[in-house]
Every structure is written in structure tokens, then in C-alpha cells.
Amino acid sequence: MPQIVIRTSGVESKRGAELMRERVVASDLESEQFASQLVERIGWALADADSLEESGSLDGGRRNASQVPRAA
Q: Which of 62, 71, 53 is nearest to 21 (CA)?
């Protein structure tokens, strides 16, 4: 099944930190609600990846976007 994977660029490790891995199929996008929520989750993961890369706090471990603290 196709997947969307968002991870940081590897600074301390070759792979970087994985922030999102989600399995999707084209038919999932037929639902506007699913599509908009997917884009929202992708945005969160991208923001978290940017934040981790800028702070230099990559630990090379795998994380979920829900485990990365967000600014309030």
C-alpha cells in the first residue's frame, strides 16, 4: 500500500527522525474530510521537521508527529 513518509534530513544519522508515516490509497482522497485532515497532518509533520532541523535537536530516533512538542 502506498505511504506518505516525512522525516528530517539526516544530520546525526543517515535517515533522520521519522515524524510521519501514513498509508493512503487514491480512493481515500475521494472524501473531502479525509483529504483536508491528511493535509493538516502533513503540515504538522513538516512544521515539526523544520523545527527539529533548525534547533539541531535531531536524535536520529523514530518519532510520531504526536510525540514532538508543538508551540502553543
A: 62
